[in-house]
TrEMBL record:
InterPro entries: DUF559 (IPR007569), Restrct_endonuc-II-like (IPR011335). It comes from the Bacteria. It comes from Actinomadura madurae. This is DUF559 domain-containing protein. The lineage of its organism: Bacteria, Bacillati, Actinomycetota, Actinomycetes, Streptosporangiales. Pfam families: DUF559. SUPFAM superfamilies: Restriction endonuclease-like (SSF52980). Residues 129-186 form the DUF559 domain. Signal peptide: none annotated. Coiled coil: none annotated.
């Protein structure tokens, strides 16, 4: 059994309760969670403003030398992205990165040369005009969302973009096919 002291500076008041702050929580999660789940949790913390990359780095480099989980936490840091909107987006991004492909950009607006907004793909390679969209179940179940997705993809395609749509079955059941589509799109768009 492990025991250690939690310093008062690592605590926050939340709804009347003393709880560990997000930086300490990230370290605790790093000691017990698989790498992918840790990155999902880190993205969520950053996206929702619970902490910043600077505060996490400072905590990991100053306040927790030789603590359990610190190596895993530090190794996860370069993979965190505050622009990731959902756990599946994070998992898809990491599937791509872990396969040795270039890291796609999360949730960047695509605008025409005239400044007209087209879309905000979940993941993209703007220089190659490749958009990767994760489509959760609500994208098929909600007619308005489904219609929006069709229009969004149409706008991108009309402006020369390749759109790769990924759902739960592809991400979790057949990731090799997803990666092959992305590899092919990158190869097709990369200079010879």
């Amino acid at each position: 059994m492990h025991s250690y002291t939690i310093l008062p500076k690592h605590l926050r008041l939340w709804d009347g309760w003393q709880v560990v702050g997000p930086e300490r929580l990230f370290l605790e999660l790093a000691a017990t969670m698989p790498r992918m789940d840790l990155i999902v949790a880190g993205d969520h913390m950053l996206r929702h403003g619970l902490t910043t990359r600077t505060r996490l780095n400072s905590f990991l480099n100053k306040d927790c030398y030789r603590r359990r989980g610190v190596r895993r936490a530090k190794s996860a840091m370069p993979h965190l992205d505050e622009k990731s909107d959902s756990p599946p987006e994070t998992r898809l991004r990491m599937l791509i990165v872990d396969a040795g492909l270039p890291r796609p950009i999360a949730n960047r607006d695509v605008v025409t040369e005239r400044g007209v907004w087209l879309a905000r793909p979940d993941l993209s390679y703007p220089a190659l005009q490749i958009a990767i969209q994760y489509e959760g179940a609500h994208h098929q179940q909600d007619y308005k969302q489904y219609s929006y997705d069709i229009e969004r993809d149409g706008r991108l395609i009309e402006h020369g973009w390749i759109v790769i749509r990924v759902n739960k079955d592809g991400l979790f059941g057949n990731p090799r096919t997803v990666l092959n589509r992305i590899r092919k799109a990158i190869a097709d768009r990369s200079p010879a």
